[in-house]
Design goal:
Keywords: Signal. The structure is a single chain. By secondary structure, this protein is an all-alpha fold. The chain contains three helices and no strands. The protein has one domain: Substrate Binding Domain Of Dnak, Chain:A, Domain 2 (Up-down Bundle). The radius of gyration is 16 Å and the shape is elongated.
Length: about 80
């Protein structure tokens, strides 16, 4: 029984990793599109969004997709992007 649970957990992680990896670029594209529209943000907000966007991409490239998603979500919130 315990072996079956462990195998199920391994398969779940193996299957969700690629799914998370595929959504990072979608979030980055949404942020890029919002930035291209010259949003009305303060200079501090713009700096923060650009840093979060860059950090999110770096996490994605490192395979840290949960961190990437969380970081990109912060940028989307500042930009007012609805999820």
């Amino acid at each position: 029984m315990l072996r079956n649970v462990a195998l199920a957990a391994v398969f779940a992680v193996a299957l969700t990793g690629p799914a998370l990896a595929n959504s990072c670029p979608k979030h980055m594209a949404a942020i890029d599109q919002a930035l291209a529209a010259n949003p009305k943000l303060s200079a501090d907000q713009m700096t923060q969004v650009k840093k979060l966007r860059a950090d999110g991409e770096a996490f994605h490239k490192q395979g840290k997709h949960a961190e990437s998603e969380a970081t990109l979500a912060q940028a989307e919130t500042i930009l007012g992007i609805k999820k």
